[in-house]
Amino acid sequence: MDGSTGEVFLAPSPEERRVLQERAAELRDALASSSGPGTTADGHRVPLLANIGGPADVDAAVAAGAEGVGLFRTEFLFLDATVAPSEEDQVEAYRTVLTAFGEGRVVVRVLDAGADKPLGFLTPADEPNPALGVRGLRTLLEHPEVLRAQLRALATAARGLPARLEVMAPMVADRADARAFAEVCREVGLPGAYGAMVEIPSAALRAGSILDEVDFLSIGTNDLAQYAFAADRQVGALARLQDPWQPALLELIALAAGAAAEAGKSCGVCGEAAADPLLACVLTGLGVTSLSMGAAALPLVRTTLARYTLEQCRAAAGAARGARDAEDARRAVREVLGVA
Hints:
The protein is of the alpha/beta class. The protein has a single domain (34-337), classed as TIM Barrel (Alpha-Beta Barrel). The protein has 14 helices and 8 strands. Strands 1-2-3-4-5-6-7-8 form an 8-stranded parallel beta barrel, surrounded by 5 helices. Strand 1, helix 2 (58-63) and strand 2 form a beta-alpha-beta unit.
C-alpha cells in the first residue's frame, strides 16, 4: 500500500515493487530534510498550517513545523454538553492554542453545530434533512447569545498575545450571512480579521460579494464537494463524488481563489484536500494562498511543494481543470509534473 496516496496494489509485479520501494526511499530522504516555511521551488510563499480539534493537537502540529493553525475546530468544547460552556472555560482552551503559535496565524472556526454534529441544547432534533437545515452559522444566528459568548471569549484569550487571531464562520451561503457575522464580530470588539468558509457552491459563485463583508475566505473542500455533488459525505457508496480531484470541485475553488485575488484578500483551503501532496500543488496553481491539513501530512506536502515552481503548479492546475474526471485529473497532473 502507498500510504501517501491511499492506493493498494494487489500482487504487485517485480517492476511495480521496485518502483514502490524506490519511491518509499525517496520519500524517507525527503521527509528527513523537511523543514521551514512552505514555498515553491522559485520562492512563492504558501503558508502551511495545521487543522486541530483542540489543545491536545497542538504539540503534534508544532512538531510537524506548522506555521500556524488554518482550522481550529471549537466543537470539542460543546460536544456532549447539556449547556454551552462558560466563557471562562472557553478562554482557557483558546489561550492555550494561541500561546503555542507565538506570532503565527491562528484561524478559529466558530461553533459548527448541526448535521453530523448535533447538540441537544442547541440544534433541532426533528429536521427532515439536517445537512440542508439549520447548521453552522444558521444555528448561531438563531442563538446569538452563544455566538457572542464565543467571540468575547476569543477576544479575551487573545488579549496581550502576539498571535494573529482570525475568526471565521461556517456554512456561509451569501453576502447577507457574511454581513451578519461581521456585524456581530464588530459589536463584541473582536480583534483581528474575520472571514467566511466556502462550503456551499453559492458562496464560491458569489465569493466577490462575500468578500465585500469579510477579510478572507477559507475553503472547506469536504462540505463543498458534498453540496456540489449532492453526495452525503458519510455515505461510502458516494465516495467517488467526494473525491477532491473532481474537476467541477476544482472549478469552484478557482472561482473563490480568483475573487479573493481580485479583492486583494487571502483564500486558503482547510479541507483535507490540502493534505494530498500533488493536489496541494494544484491548489497553489489555482491561486489558493495557504494550505491547512492534519499535522502528519505537513512534511510531505512541504517537500513536494518545494520541488515545483509556481508556473509548474499553474500548469498542473490547468491540466486538472481540463480533465474529464477525477482519475483523469490525477493522470494529467502526474504527467505535467513528471511524476512516475
